[in-house]
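Supplementary Methods, section 5.1.

A reviewer requested that the exact input to the structure prediction be made available. We therefore reproduce it here, unchanged from the version used in the analyses.
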Amino acid sequence: MDFIAPIVDDPYSFGMIAAANALSDVYTMGGKPVTAMNLVCFPTDKMDISVLTMILNGALAKLNEAGVTLVGGHSVKNEDLKYGLSVTGIIDPKKIITSSGARNGDKLILTKPLGIGIMTTAVKAGLVDSDTECRLVEQMAMLNKKAAEIMVSMEAHACTDVTGFGLIGHTCRMAENSDVSIELFTDKVPFISEAMQFIRMGTIPGGAYSNRKFYSVKVRNNDTGGELLDLLYDPQTSGGLLIAIPEQKAEEMLACIKRAGYGEAAIIGRVLTNEGSQVILK
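The structure derived from this sequence is encoded token-by-token as follows.
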């Protein structure tokens, strides 16, 4: 179940993003989402009900794209608007992929670029033009469905989606859960090109500072610059998958993922034998 507050002004876009975000938890484990229920907190005294209608229509469009059946929902009157979905899926018990299976020598593939938290903060501040905002919405609303199907078919060892804890936070969790260390190739990490200019302007979400405070003790930093670090700690909404795959399959998987529409996917790291379950920035 995922609940999020609005991160863009357009209700239909917000609904699409919320649905994609909720479905991602099932895709991350190699499952197939089957049904979903709407969960709504809505300020009826402050917003017209037509706003909620557009949110639900946006979400329904993504559910239809995913082949997921909407089976109802729950709503409460609330001071603040929040929306999410509770998703039920199915999976072959022998093919469950978790964040605890990364093995020494695996390569890591990231399927979507970073910078979403920084960009949505800039959107709220009115600093982003309409074309850039449309591209941002398109990225967040893109399902992780096809990447997950490729991951399962090629027998990936581990996976996590990159969301609120940022790339470093979720990589730390994979390292700890798998009892390995992970080296990130910081010059290979894809990011939204406009994000860097907003970092220089100080448009950084509070979650990035929280992530840095919590996870920096688990990171060995080999002189990675401050602006790039801000990206690595940036909290993502409906981010991509971080997949651990045997080295001999990595290039083939990356090519398949790119052909499936994740054009900025990249190999961004490798798994090492345990050195204290660290994340090493190279």
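The radius of gyration is 18 Å. These observations are discussed further in the main text.
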